[in-house]
Design goal:
The chain is built from three helices and six strands. With 179 residues, it is an alpha+beta fold. A hairpin with a 3-residue loop joins strand 2 and strand 3.
Length: 179
Amino acid sequence: MSPEQSPELFTYRQYPRLEPVGYYRKGGFHPIHIDDVLHNRYRIVNKLGYGAHATVWLVDDLVSGRYAALKVLAADVSKVSEVAIHHRLKQRQLNDGGSDGQEFLVEYVDDFKLEGPNGTHQCIVTEVLGPSIGADLDDIYDDKQYPIDIAKNVVAQVMRGVAYLHSCGVVHGGKWSVP
C-alpha cells in the first residue's frame, strides 16, 4: 500500500491525560519544551497539568533558586486578566498583612507576557501546590465515603479562603471573573 493510501499516516491518536493537539493553534496554547527558559528567569522542569485555557509547568526560578508553578494561558483568554485579581490580593496583603483565610490561597510570585507563534500569552507564576484534593482523597478512599472529620476540615478551609476573597472584593463567578 502506498503512503497516499495508508489511513494510519493520517490518524492521530489522543494519549490519555494529555491535552488535545488541536489546543496548539492560533489563539490557543503556547508550545513549551523541557529546559526552555522563559522571561530569562524560569527554566521549564516538567508539566504539571493543563485545563481548557492553560498549561501549568513546574519551573526552576533561576533568580530565587526555588521551584514555582508557571501557568501559561491560551492567547484567546489572555485578555481577561487573572493577574488583576492576584495584584489586588497581593496589595491587600501588603496593606494590612492579610487576614484570616489568606493562608488558603495560592501565593502569587510574578507575571509576564510571552509572545509566541499562537499569539500573546499571559503567564502567572505562583508557589507550587500539590495534587488536587479530589485526586488525593480518591486515591486514598477509592469508592468509600470520606471520613466526616476530613470532609469538615476541607469544607472549613474552602469557606475561609472564599470568605477572604470576598473581603477583598473578589468573587469567583466562574470562567470570566474579573474584579
